[in-house]
Design brief:
Largest sheet: 2 strands, antiparallel
Radius of gyration: 20 Å
Strand content: under 5%
Helix content: 55-70%
Order of helices and strands: EEHHHHHHHHHHH
Distance between the termini: 31 Å
Structural class: mainly alpha
Strand order of the largest sheet: 1-2
Low-confidence stretches: 1-18, 254-258
């Protein structure tokens, strides 16, 4: 199910133009109720099948890179969060499939060499995979802010990469196939805007738009400081400054971030 609030904007915007304005209290109560029920069910389903490695690709520097990339391409804020979620899910599944395919026989030395070579390949094309996730996120967020092949290619070339159009097409298809084309998963950004919409309906006196601005700043901070925040919350919850590996596992806090 797609949850999208009404926005004001026309055509495809240039990089220098401001982001489209979110129009709160513009969704009908019936549609809002349907959105809430749909997002809640989908969120529950996503949590039930959440990988134990979820969040491994939400390291602060990586998230900052994705955010800055989206900013340079002139994309709406919803795209950056969608791109991060797609990237995290894709890389976990992609690496799992690659690892499973690396010589699972009895020759451990050969298996180790194959996996090392595979890791090198993953690292070499990592920026390309990030760009593909941003492209996909742009297409499911706002159709007039799509990052097309030419734009993506030009940006990658400005970073010194010599990819061709076929490389970008194949990479985007790889992401889609790996995720079984299930890429439109609600992000915390979506939940934030829906909850603000609910607040606007329940109490018209609530200054929703100023709260929206503040909420996005808080959301960005939480994303960028994710591991630090989770670490401190875990220590407070268990009343122990040195959590054990079992306690970390139970809290779904990654042991290590790739």
């Amino acid at each position: 199910m797609t949850a999208v609030l009404v926005v004001k904007g026309k055509g495809r915007r240039a990089r220098s133009q401001p982001s489209p304005e979110v129009a709160f209290v513009a969704t009908s109560p019936e549609m809002l109720e349907e959105l809430l029920v749909g997002v809640a069910k989908e969120n529950e389903a996503n949590l039930s099948r959440l990988s134990q490695h979820a969040g491994s690709f939400k390291k602060s520097k990586l998230i900052e890179f994705v955010f800055r990339l989206c900013e340079q391409l002139g994309l709406h804020q919803v795209t950056r969060y969608q791109a991060v979620e797609i990237l995290d899910r894709f890389m976990i599944q992609y690496i799992d499939k690659l690892y499973s395919s690396t010589c699972p026989g009895s020759d451990k030395d050969t298996e180790k060499i194959d996996w090392i070579q595979m890791q090198i390949t993953i690292q070499e094309h990592f920026v390309l995979r990030i760009m593909s996730c941003v492209q996909i996120a742009s297409k499911i967020s706002f159709h007039y802010q799509i990052v097309d092949i030419s734009m993506a290619l030009k940006f990658l070339q400005s970073l010194g990469y010599s990819y061709k159009k076929e490389d970008l097409l194949n990479s985007e298809l790889l992401v889609l196939k790996t995720l079984s084309f299930q890429v439109n998963v609600p992000s915390p950004f979506t939940h934030t805007e829906i909850l603000l919409e609910v607040m606007g309906y329940n109490d018209p006196s609530v200054p929703v738009k100023p709260l929206h601005s503040i909420s996005l700043k808080v959301l960005m901070f939480v994303y960028l400081m994710r591991n630090t925040i989770y670490e401190n919350l875990l220590k407070i919850a268990i009343e122990n400054s040195t959590p054990t590996e079992l306690q970390r596992l139970c809290s779904n806090l990654p042991q290590s971030v790739v």
